[in-house]
Write a structure and sequence with these properties.
Blueprint: E1 2-4, H1 11-24, E2 29-32, H2 36-42, H3 53-65, E3 72-75, H4 89-96, E4 100-106, E5 111-112, E6 115-119, H5 123-134, E7 144-151, H6 157-171, E8 175-176
Parallel strand pairs: 1-4, 2-3, 4-7, 7-8
Antiparallel strand pairs: 5-6
Length: about 180
Amino acid sequence: LTVGSDMACGKMTAGILMVHEARRRGIRADFVATGQVGITIWGSGVPVDAVKIDYACGAVEAAVMAVHENRLIVIEGQGSIIHPGSSATLPLIRGSCPTHLVLCHRSGVERLPQHEWISIPPLRDIGRLYEHISGACGALPSARTVALSLNTELLTEDEALQAITQAERDTGLPATDPV
């Protein structure tokens, strides 16, 4: 499951590019789109924000189960657990029961753009928060944050390379800008 530090930070793009790379390497992989743009690009999925909240977990689960056989499944994340306007993140976590998380972040952004009073916590802390939530704080097996996908479009090439290196140092996780 791709998860994010904010809305519109590259979760869909990272997910689609991971599936394309996996397939290029001969790995059976599929993408579960969960937003209208992802569905338009991929051709299938579940528009989780258009599903009544009571049924969203089940809709996500059904979409995952439809492609589950012997393959890597990359699920498009929506929103952010720290964004006050995000209602799709929890149903995605509960419905997909992810084993691994890829944390997506827009480098150079320290506060939520539409909510300047909310600081984006360190990436390591956001990853841990998603892990705790995925495991219902110990009631279920937790997903593991395994990588960072950085959107560096606001940075110069040198700044982008420095941001990637710094993110790896700060978290101990591999990081890249997939674009």
